[in-house]
């Protein structure tokens, strides 16, 4: 339950509200398996303390929670077709399990990182996995790492780019070599890195695709496309 538990306990648990009202708040805050933990008698009795006890017995068990998140990683939902939505769901699922395991004191280094990468790769759709395999050197493991200080916002900016544009006539490298193979499709910005990170990210330099096209910059993440597109072609 982690940080959410502490916040709820401070705001609701320590309030002077009636037990039934507290229980009502608690029920509304629960979903999925957690919502099924509180039995009907406890609900009918309006017994907030008992409900909290049941949840604590179930979710304050560190070993059980670690097992649940490891099981979640081992049973990632496979992305069946090339899809931004499916890929985003996979990433969010992995991030959730990994962050919860870190919160529980588990460290991700060496073998554990390699195993998570293996599990993610096996959950990818066939086409995306091919692109990923083609982008990874066969005789070495990725070793790029960078420490950043992050500020978390609900939304960084609107979708970028604002509209879809056709790149079929652009002289681009293979998709597997691009930092974002779908850079021409409007999508959310997950992380915005400042100029202070640029020197660490860049590998060699930049190449101008054409006079009216953006720049292509070689980075540790692959070729990044950035700049102004003079003519945007909406998808038909």
Can you put this structure into words, describing what you see?
This protein is mostly helical and 236 residues long. The protein has 3 domains: 1-60, no CATH class; 63-135, no CATH class; 145-231, no CATH class. Helix content is 43%, strand content 7%. The chain has helices at residues 2-13, 19-29, 40-45, 48-59, 62-74, 84-103, 111-123, 126-135, 198-201; strands spanning 202-208, 215-219, 222-226. It has a 3-stranded antiparallel β-sheet with strand order 1-2-3. Strand 2 and strand 3 (222-226) form a beta hairpin. Helix 2 packs parallel to helix 4 and helix 5 runs antiparallel to helix 6 (84-103). It comes from Anopheles quadriannulatus.
Tell me briefly what this model is:
It comes from Anopheles quadriannulatus. The chain has 236 residues and is mainly alpha-helical.
